[in-house]
Design goal:
This protein is mainly α. It is 76% helix and 1% strand. The termini are close together.
Length: 414
Amino acid sequence: MATTTKIRLRVLVRASGGPRYAVALAVDALGTGLLRPFLLLYGVMVLRLSAPATGVAMTVGVVVGLVCLPAVGRWLDRGARSAVVAASMLVRVLGVALLPAAPAGNVWLFATAALFLGIGNQAWPAAHAAVVATVAHGRERDAALAAGRALRNAGLGAGALLATASLAGGTTALQVLAAVTGLAYLAAGALAWSVRLRTHPAAVPAEGGSGEPAPRMRVLLAANVVYVFCLNVPEIALPLILVTQMHASPVWSAAIFVANTLLVVTLQVPVTVLMSRFSRRTVLALAGVVLAASYLGFLAATSLGHGWGAPAVAAVSVVCTIGEIVYAGSATALVTALAPARLLGRALSRFQLSTGFGLAVSPAVITTLASYGSAALWGSLAAATLLSASAVAAESSRRPHRACTARRGVRDDA
């Protein structure tokens, strides 16, 4: 098994698409961090929409954005790579441009803006993974995917901090943030387009031919819907529990979110490289065990009461973030290893569809379970995640499907 043992910045940049592409990712993430956490406030404060109407419009934008994924997959399978990434960035320019054009009280233009932003946000992960899978191979590809996630989290965090510092300016500051975000998306899209990376689509055999079969990923996709709940734990579950049930200071929630971002930025690549000595399925199953253990840890921490409860939750959140890092470093990499070259785009779009669905339903599921108490929330999440990890582990115990890496003709360990 080929194992990446050293981290070289130059190698990671090359494997991630090159310097221009890396700059495009950083600029795009910075722009996203400037506006995405405050899009709800833009609707409420600038457009004078009600909070429920704003929230529904944003949710509809995210869900309808998922509908574009099959088309994204087919476009990728026709050989497009950097063009799809650029399109995912440029379509968000349209969304941001609609925000200042929307008159106060007009929920439809705001919903249309949220739709364009949703399309871009849903299309980008699959397109980016396809770019990395085209220029990098084997475990180097896994490290490059991890580096992309670390870079994106750093950009998102920096953008959010800049936006937070600017919010004292009120509605004018939000309008300026929207304008800067649009410019950032435009610049990032132009940079990504200039990379001009594409691949010749593998010949698709006629019906009944002997081509590589499509990977059976039903277990992986179903498990991913549950795994992805961990991404909303720092943003939704923990603030909800800490503030409304434990009556702790909101500072604890903010500190946990900042720590989560810093840990992802600093540890995503090293942990992914460290785990490369094991098969990706095994690592993904291990991630589920770590996440389930952290959920049980949250259950124990919330029983400690007001004094020690919040610090205990913060400590357990580190374990949850480690589980998130292990999951993120193995899941997409496993999909790219399983999928034949001719079906890579469709496989990645199906995976992103499961991710987007999980992210869309998790806030409602988390808040509903939390209303029944900590035991219902954390116990249900732990049981569902352990069940998903068991299913992934059971798949790994069977004869693994090894996807042929078309660019080098070697078989990739999954």
